[in-house]
Amino acid sequence: MFLYTDTKQMIDDINNRSFWFGLWGASLNVPQVIGGVIFLPRLEAALILIACVASVMVAAQMHKRMPFTRLTSWVHLPWIPLLPYLVSSLIEEGIGTLFGVWLTYVTVTIALSLVLDIRNLILQYFTNNNQFEGKNQ
């Protein structure tokens, strides 16, 4: 298992497949990693960083075996219990600080991602539509 090369290949494949998929992936994951590192002393940041990196690595392994499968939505499963904690932390923190702005962005994008994941899994299991659409389909 080559975690770095498999992850890079997945990102390259996504960017080649669809500009919008690539943009969404970058806007979801890059801020999580950067903020996770910057705010690492905070528990929220550590949890976000761990969840993000683990999700991307697992998704890369899934992509390696079944490119563009909607089943990669399952990698966001850890975000379901984490989201209420992030909302609670955000209410406590407010958005008056740089950490609060970052936490707001992450919370909103993760919530949106979970909604999209539900859609993907419905398409996967109820319509047998297993692959993400894109310019190459």
Please, how many domains?
1
Count of DSSP E strands? 0
Q: What count of helical segments does DSSP give? A: 5
The assigned structural class equals mainly alpha
Query: Strand portion, in percent?
Result: under 5%
Low-confidence stretches: none
Shape: globular
Q: State the separation between the terminal residues, measured CA to CA.
A: 28 Å
- Mean pLDDT score, rounded? 89
3D structure, described in words:
It is a single chain. With 137 residues, this protein is an all-alpha fold. It has one domain (28-126). The chain is built from five helices and no strands. The protein has helices at residues 3-17, 19-38, 43-65, 79-93, 98-126. The longest helix has 29 residues, at 98-126. It is globular. The model has no long low-confidence stretch (mean pLDDT 89).
Task: Give the gist of this structure.
By secondary structure, this protein is mainly α. Helix content is 74%, strand content 0%. The radius of gyration is 15 Å and the shape is globular.
